[in-house]
Amino acid sequence: MKSIHSLRMRASMLAVGAALVSIGAHAQDTYPARAITLMVSAAPGGTTDLAARMISDPLSKALGKPVVVENRPGGAGAIAASAVKRAKPDGYTLLVQYSGFHVITPHVVKAGFDPIKDFTPVANLIVAPQVFVVRPDLPIKTLPELVSYAKAHPGKLNYASSGNGSLQHVTGEMLNRMSGTNIAHVPYKGTGPAITDLLGGNVEMTFTTAPPLLAHIRSGKLRAIAVTGNVALPSLPNVPTTATIKGYEKLDVSSWFAVYAPANTPKPIVDKLTGEIKKIMATDAFKRKAQEQGAYAVYMTPQELAAHTSKEYQTWGKFVKDAKITGE
């Protein structure tokens, strides 16, 4: 016969479980009761900011409360991520994060957050391949021509990035390792300054997502020579993908942009958020906007995003270690 103590313990545990279920159901029923903040880890105008603004208005309409975008750039994504990490896990402060900041930067510098333990995945929004661009005054129109030029003119080419450990940085190192070139890395404090110096003639090339490049490509100020991956961009239909270029098929580097909540955010709240985001992403308006900016709408459930984040974190961690990439 069970002791009175064990029976009381069982009854207490059942009561706690019932209370948690009740709290979760109540949270789902009443959430949201006020404005929600989407904390963006980059400055306005970039792809991370674009991703946040693509969902802010429709999500506000769906939930019946304001959804406000707040840009917190700096620290290679650490300022925004740390703010959301410390926020109350109640669904009112969310992080819209760029993959390079989330799964690469923590391997290179002391970012102050753990991308796996400190956040609850909500949904992935868009995926954007990298576009290789060079100054139009260079005699380079294809990726093989870039490699040939780099080998024929050692020390003459530099590539700009948004910082040490950024996706542009690791893309450049992937290209060097794959092709046997030694194109020098010039880090900047963000994609904006990098592109400004590229346009000013201080560096020869860069690779980043399409949104900040499209206007310059269309005006002829920059020349696009390749898009990473195996899917052509509708916004750059005449630019070949690396999958179609012999010897560079594995140069598949894409950025992804996702929504995270603080760790321990109640599941009913996460389910409500991801459900509404999924509906928004299924609309033609969202898909069209993503394609116009050189990206693709790619929804992931919280479980899929958790698995994807973990896999990418491990993959890039190994690459950073093998390539000896540092924050110096």
Automatic annotation (TrEMBL):
It holds the Pfam family TctC. InterPro entries: BUG (IPR005064), Bug_dom1 (IPR042100). Keywords: Receptor, Signal. Residues 1-27 form the signal peptide. The keyword Isomerase does not apply. The keyword Signal applies. Gene3D superfamilies: Bordetella uptake gene, domain 1, Periplasmic binding protein-like II. Belongs to the UPF0065 (bug) family. This is Tripartite-type tricarboxylate transporter receptor subunit TctC. It comes from Massilia aurea.
